[in-house]
Amino acid sequence: MSDQSPARSSIRNRLQRPGRLLIIVAVFCILLSPNAFAYLDAGTGSLIIQLVIGAFLGAVLTAKLWWMKLKMLLGRIFGGSKKDIGSDR
């Protein structure tokens, strides 16, 4: 049995996952802030477009890598030949 009190374990759980708290604080800051009346120039717009395209291509590459790993795993499990697994071109 652990010698930690429930309060200590609760604090430890919160400290282990700071991302959730950061997101909650950021959402509240955005929702409760007044109007900014800010100007977004062309440089900011192109930066946002680059971020969106980069995130999309990163997700596509990650999905492709996971798909290849899944195909290799299923090939090992079901005994497909090595020639058939790698030739999806």
- Total strands: the figure is 0
Strand content: under 5%
Helix content: over 70%
Q: How many domains would you count in the coordinates? A: 1
Question: How large is the count of helical segments?
Answer: 4
Average predicted local confidence, pLDDT: 80
Major beta sheet, specifics? none
Structural shape:
flat
Structural class: mainly alpha
Head-to-tail CA distance between termini? 56 Å
C-alpha Rg (nearest Å): 24 Å
Question: N-to-C SSE series?
Answer: HHHH
Poorly predicted runs? none
Notable traits:
89 residues, mainly alpha, 75% helix
Textual characterization of the structure:
The protein has four helices and no strands. The chain is mainly alpha-helical and about 90 residues long. It has one domain (about 5-85). The chain is flat, with a radius of gyration of 24 Å.
Write the layout of secondary structure elements.
Layout: H1 6-16, H2 18-31, H3 42-78, H4 82-86
Task: Kindly summarize this structure in a few lines.
The protein is mainly alpha-helical.
